[in-house]
Fold these 3 entries.
Entry 1:
Amino acid sequence: LLMSESINESISVVLWNKAPYSFFWHGRKYRVSVVGMHHTIREGRRLFHIFSVSDGSNFFKLIFDTETLGWKLLETYGL
């Protein structure tokens, strides 16, 4: 059973073909090996893209705010 942890911290993301390729969190680079689910949600006029990704051993939930163009790491699983 994977334990989840709520993070909600800003991160830097490198994109490839409109999907996360890697991201930097706490000075460490995480290479995305699998992009799982991708969906969008709308809060008022703000549109958010949510990605479930893995680096091969851990799982992460990332969110992209189309208004601010900022990324956040929402949750981790298995770290």
Entry 2:
Amino acid sequence: MPNIPALITLIVYSIVLFGIGLWAARRAKSQEDFLLGGRNLGPWVAGLAYAASASSAWTMLGFSGFVYLVGPSGMWMIPGVVLGKFVVWLVAGHVLQSSSRDHNLLTMTDFLTQFASPVATRWIRILASLFIAFCFSFYVAAQFQGAGIAINDVFGTSTTTGVIVGALVILAYVFLGGFLAVSITDTIQGMLMAFVAVMLPAFAFVEAGGWAGISTMLAEAPATYSAPFGESVGFAAFGLAIGLAATGFGAIGQPHLVTWIMATKDTPSRIKGAIVAMGWSALVFSGMAILGLSARVIFGAGAEPEGVFFGLSNALLPGVLGGIVAAGMLSAIMSTVDSQLLVTGGAVSHDLG
């Protein structure tokens, strides 16, 4: 039997997203509106939408499963993710925001070619657009697969059905409303992800016996699991921490993420947006770390790492909350895919002329 409350929750959520797309379609009057929302985003919308776009299914399924698998050593990723957002918004963001406004730049490729010769500009635009379309095609495909897995885990449908449903919802509101629709939906999705990242770990934490239960599990686990650097010591431990932290700095070169900074309305909004994005990331990643450790207590060491998120949801939550968790997972997927699809569309329509 399908989970009816969860199904109703997910249907209502999808209808809301589609409605936002229709609303935003009426307000996208120019290419700047469609690609950057008129450069008028406030700090909460820009910060939450950016954070949600930077954190796809790997945050909720992958990171929780990673901490479940390797233990506390996996948590070195958290300060790196927060620090990466600091660098993007408050160091590189100043130059990117001011330059994009002064020279009316609409895409990251515009930024890269603003001082290049006409011949170099043409080649950079071609290569950058091909790179964006090629690389994002794999990421988008992986996210659609994640949507299929999420829907299948909750409703027992096939993964193919889940992929089709998720793709139709995302494509509808992205290409109807452009950046404004993506901004609003990603803000909603960011709030929903934060709620799930607090609610589900809280249930799991209580079920695991709180800090006492987690401490007992760590004391009984192999030293390589409970140690702060896992199996690594000396320079290897230093390399482990730096390597995991470096994950957060990948956002500096992601065109679908720096777009949010170009779209903020002024410098104070960018600075406040940075605080929102960093706070959101600290909250969500910490919640997923607690979820992973709690799952180790509840399931032991034999569970599938990427399955512990939905395993705990199915075991601990009633139908309506299960539907919210499913919507939260789809939000993690949609919030990354929609911005990537929009940037890819901009690369083809604007950067290639």
Entry 3:
Amino acid sequence: LGIYPGGDLAYDSLLENGQKLTGIASLGWKLDSYGELAVTTDFDYEEMGRSLYFAGNQEMETYVNITISASPTRLLSMPSLQEKSIQQIVGTLEEWGLKGVLIDIAYVPGEEQDQLFDFVGKLTRQLQQDGLQANLALPWNANIDYVAASRSVDHLILKYALDSDGAKPGPLEPLPQVEAMIQDITSNLSADKVILSISTGGIQWSRTGVPTPLSHREILELAARQGASVRWDTESKTPYFQYGAGEEVWFENRYSLKYKIDLVEKYNLGGLAL
């Protein structure tokens, strides 16, 4: 599954690598606290249309990626808003001719988990009546009830989340921690319901400790401009380089990704999301 951001570079990559994907989840939609579904400010209808048209011709499964960036408190407390929101999502799938939805929970849910997963479950049941799918992306956190989350959807997309507390230069997804995450979650639910999400880019760490995400192409261009030598961290199985006065970049390449892709087969996971 490719998480598709849109834009010319992403479209070029889709044309080049589309045959390697079984599906794409297009970014560009968000759900607010009131359950209103809206597109992001940089959404380009024409560009999204051409990418989904190509994906459909390649017989890829196409999903709308809907981000929930904070707890939708009003939505979760009012059944009428939930029904309205579900109808908006169903209407969007029909309008674009998509196969399903990927709900991306871009925060760590707390006490509202039961209500949140109940809402997602209602959406899933509605979509399944029409032969459509619902998938849920969650960050890794010990406080999340992944068993309850998995019951509410077709697949659970698991993201290793970099700890932002006391953040310092280092790998985004160190292999030992990613494997420990997989071992923990598959001990409680069926492995084929879990899709492992991994990054294809990296993080630039400035001297002030502020991390900036970069694409793989941006990282290679930066290393070339700076004449930096790429090193390999044996513990995390991750490449990195240093330059200037304390600048560091940790990223993924074909070798680090191969280690993580092997985990999908090792633990019989349901798939991989890039």
